[in-house]
Structures are given as structure tokens and as C-alpha cells.
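We include this case.
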Amino acid sequence: MLASGSSKHNERNQNRPLALPTFPVALDSAGKPVDTLRLKENADIITPIDLQLVLKEKQQPQVNPEVQTSTTLNKEQLDIPCLNAKGVTGKPKAKSEMPPANFNNANPKSDNDDAVAMESMLSEQKKWVARDIERHSHDYSEESRIPLELQNGITSDERIQEFLDKNPIYDLDKQLWAGFEEDNRLLAEGANLRDVVYDIINAILEEWGTTLHGRRKLRRTYDLKLFHETKFSSGYSCPDFVIEARGPSFERPEQGDVGFSNIATCITIDPPGLESNLGDMFERHAVLARQIFAHQPNRRFVRTCCIDQEGIAWYHFDRSGLYENFGGFYNEEPHNFIRLILGLSSLDEEILGLDTSIRWRLDREGRKATGTVAVVDERKVSRKFKMVFVEPMFRKSSIYGTGTVVWVVEDSESGEEVLVKDSWRGDGEEWVSECENLKAARGLDGVVQMISCEEDRVQTKNFGVFREDDPECMNFIQSRMVMERYEHHLFAFSFERQLLCALRDAIAGHRNLVIKAGIIQRDVAWRNILFGKPDAKPGNRGILIDLDLALPISSIKPVCTAVGHAQFCSIATLFNAISHSKDRRRLPHDYLDDLEAGFYTTSTIMYELDGPGICRDPLPEFVSEWLGCANIGFTKNLQFKRNFILSEDPIDPKDYIAPFWSEASRNLVEKYYTFTRQMAQVKEDIRRDYSSEKAHEKLQDLLAGPAVFQNYDHVINLFDVAIMQLDSAKEKNSNSPAQGTKRKAKDALENLLGPCDANDNRARRLKLESTGEEDV
């Protein structure tokens, strides 16, 4: 058993979304992107392994394109994968099964070179799942476990016994599958485990008719490349076998005939003498599962398996975590083995872990042509929305967590494009349904508006692997929301006044949430503020989105977590994240933490962009340090923020603003910095003297109604003044610096973010957890 231990697609199909853009990311002092491996723990969208490796390949022909080093994206390549943001139209994006642009097509010198290359690439790939495995995996079970839905309903004991009685692939007298020796019940001398297992599984699939019309087909893929969902590198995997699938949830890859987009599962073989470490095999299957999730956006869970000469280990991955299980000794327990194989290859897509409320129609090439998403609203009325694009505009890549997927669809009643968002939440008191938050936000200016929702669609505890006896095993619940669609995020601004108005209205929207709905959003960042609709009136020129981490003020407790995008976390919440669980100096996340995040959002845009769609290259060293610290740990992040905000002598925040920005914006940043510094110092004083009654009184005063109104009014007024200064300068038709340096805004979206974000690493959002780092 496993060792213990740690055709080119034509352009007619305009339903495909465009290539995902690259968002700003930290640059080093030379102006180059920060090493992405250092940023791995916060990966938010599908990200690549930056390698150029080779492997012999039978199926997909290799290509030799030049490495692309352009600093801009053209219109046909650009899309904005932000929640509620409208994209642009153009050609379909290249699918992930296509070899990336910098694929190295040199011929390998030897099989050993192949092995070394593959091992190196696997090592890098595993780093992308290491965080999930470390924090959200569940212990290996030595007890034979098969999910209940595979034990009941897949097939009957009588049907299995009939197969075993008549098929020579199994010897009833010896209780052995063909290819194994009776004396030691191990692989027969000279037999190849891959061939033996292939014959067994293929016999099972043929007997139960799953191979009819090619609906399911066992494929040897150990010498084929199944390309990853990557943007810049040659990431791929080569599982020993896959079960190719046909149906409304699967589509043929653009290159070759098998890829992660049209498989039901992956199967690996652990041959005698080369048994893998249990932990290594788990990591490999987590990599495979992550890619299945990426290529099949309606996946609720993924199951895979590994077979050696004695038994079978199978793996289950869903948003609640990663599970490894012992499937039994398949010679002695053929019934369980057959049920598991039938479950992994089932013709019922629900059993495979697919959400059948999301459906596609395929074209003659087996590619997705049109699709629909069904939603049951609060009145229990089901509606189908037609997809504008057959792939989601946004999806999270990590296995554990919210698993957010956002679809652009058409509302047949209004004729408008709206969004359907699927996301998961933990079933605990620290989690609140985003549906409930959006209901509370209905009618509020400056906040995303929900049309309908389906609150509790499905729960991970019903997937057959939930362990009641594991305190670390949390049930996750999926919700589906239909929401209005808005314009692009803040980094896609077209002119200075537009940006300031959007920031102003989003902060006012945050105030509405706090004062009128009693909710704190807890995730203010440039990516979570969108420009309002083209005809938006003041109050809705900027829209605050993503309320999945929002909580009612009354339920927020001083816990060892920091919530939000790492770059924009406040000083107080970062202290919480590194504090000890018994440290009583933690402060609950409040509105001032989000106003502090608003300052970071405002300043980083003016620090990183030198006009519409123009990234500074290189960034000032101060800004590069900020972006870097935000991604390498809570302590470094906190130290930087304290030096930035709470230094004994205040810094001049205008020193790092790009030349494009007007004097009005510079003054805004300076005054917003002063306010942020004052509030952060007050909270720091409260924390340090938290045991005193005076500190508690000061905190209560800070959170009381009059102070809340006063602080919001102060910040919003800063934006109002800056906007009026811009308007005044325009009316005077003056060359005053208050107008800002004039730049051509033509094709700004073409330049938007070009190389400034290799992997969207600094835009990632985490529910940051306590690390037990040093007390601060």
C-alpha cells in the first residue's frame, strides 16, 4: 500500500470571454515583477508555474512561438474579471489546453531528463496547493471508506457478483484480479501494474455500459500533457489514466482530444518498488483536482484515486477541505472497488460532483456554444438565465474557501446583462450569508444591488466524506445571487475626476451600510469598488461590492484574524492576526479599519498609476516594499504599515504620487493620511491600555453615533473639496496643476495593467489567520 509519511478553434464563437487581464503586482527595484513563488500562499485567481520544461508528448503538437514581453494588452485580449464589472467584447480567449506562449519545445536528451523535468515542475505545482493541504486537509483514514451515494444506488451486489462470476478478469476461486499471484497476492512477476489496472477498469466500464457512444472512456495519459489553466508558463500534468467524459458539462479542449475540460477523474498508479510517500501523492492529486475545478467551473467536488499493487487510496476535494481515504484492498474487496470506479465514471453528473443547474450546448466540435444558469429566487420560482459568455468572468482557483464563480448572463425580462455569483461560506457563527447582507443593502446608494438569491443551495456535509468527529472539519454552504452589473474597477479609470467621484461615493456607500444596515463590509480594496453605470447619478458613481465577508456590527468580535486584501488590512486587524489567542488587547474590526483601507486604496492608485492605464515602471522603492510586505507575512506587513502611518515623524505621502495627478488629488492624499494617522494612533493607544476603564470608554466614544457621522463626513468632505477644485480649474480653463497632467486616454484599457500584475497576487483577498508570530 502507499508508503506512510508525511484543431485551432475558429473565431465564430463570440460567446467565450476574453483573456483575463493582468492586474498590478509588486515590482522590484529594477521594475520587474516580484518572484511569484514568494506570493504563493495568497493565490487568488488561476496562476501559473513560471517554468519552461519539456516532456515527450504524443498527442498535442509542440509549438515554438516567441516569448511575449509586451507591456500592454490590446482590446481583443482584455477583459476585467471583477465582480459586477462589465467586460469588453472581442475574440475568445485561448483555452488552457493550448501550449502557453513561452513553451520550450526543445527535444529532451533522455528519459531521465524527462523525469527530472517532470519532478521539478511537480514540485513547483505543489506549492500552489501547499496552503490548502497544510491548513484544510483531513487525516488519512485507515478504515475502508466509500461515500454512501456510491454504496447505495450505484449498482447492486447481485449485479456486481454477476460480473465477477462471468468475467475472466476476476478469479473467484483465488479471489484475485487477473495479473496477481495467489501466494503473496501481489503483482505477478513480469506483469505491468499500469496494464493490469487498465484492463480491470476498462472491463468494469464496458460491463456497465458507460463506454457506449464514447460517453466515458478510460484513457492512458501518462505520456500526454494535460495543460493547466495558466497565463505565462508551461504548466501541465500527466496522470497515468483519466476517464474521458462527454456531456453537457464537458467540452473538448482546443488542442488534442483530452484535457482537464473533458475528464471525469484522474487515476494515478504507484508501481511496485517506486511507492510514493503518502503526502507527496496527496499533493499530486490536489494539483490535479485544482485543475479540474479550474476547467470545469460548475464543479462542486472532485474525486480522484491512486492504485498500487495492494489497495486503492481515493481523494475527495471540495470547498470545505481536502480529504484522503483508504478505499480497501481491491483483490479482497472487489465490490467496493467496482462501486468506486463506477462512481468516478458515473453518467450522472451530480454523482461526479457537477452542478447540473448550469448547462451548456456543444457545437459540432464538442466545444461549448451556449449555456444557461438556473436560479431559484426567494419566491421559490425557478428562472433560467442565458449566458453572455460560456465561461465565467471570474473564478477563484484555490480548492478551499469561497470558490467564487461569477457568470455574465442576460435577464430576459429586462434585456440587461446581470451577474450570477456562486460562492460558499462556512457554517459557523463567524460566517454570514452574503444573501442576507445584500438583502440588508437593498436600496442603499453606493452599494451593489441584488436582484434575487438562492441562499442555501447545497452543503458539503452531504457529499459523503464529512467527518463529525473532526473538529477541524467545517460544513460549507453554497449560495447563488443575481446582481446588477456595473462598470470596471478603479484601476480602469479614464480620467481623474471619475476616479475621485467613484471613491467618494463608495465610501459614502460604506457609511450607508454601517449607519442604515448595521453592517461593516470588511474588505475595502480597489478591486471591490466599481464605477457605476454610465448614467449613474451622484451617490452611485462608485459601487462597493463583495459583501461575502461583511458582518453585522453586533456580531463582530476581537478574534485572531485579519479579514480583507492583505495590502489594505489596517494596523489594528494585522495586530489581531499575529496576536496570541489569549491576548486581550485585540480590537474588533470596525468602520475605522475600513476607512484606513480606503486610504490605502486611494493612495496606491496614485502611487502605481501615472495616468489612465499607465503603470509606473519602475515603481518607487517605497511602493515596491509595500506591495512586497503585503504578501510575505503579517508581521512584515504590520511593521511596514506602522512605519508608514505611525512613525514618530509623519512622512509626506505626496512624495510617492505619480506626476499625472493634480494638486487637488495630492492634497486629498495628504489630508486623508493625516486622518488615518490620527485614528490609528487613537486605536493604538486604546489597545496598549486596554485593561483600563478609560480605554474602554474611549473606544465606545469612537464607535458611538456622533463620532461615526463626524469621521465619515470628514473623509467624504476631503473628496468633495478635491472634486470641486478640479471642477473650478476646468471652468477657468487654466493650466493650473489642479487639472492634472494631460495624457491621452485613447485606448487606456489597452494599456491597463499590462505587465504590472503577473498573477494578481497583490489583489488577493484572504481570511488571514493567526500565525502565532511575535507579540507586537
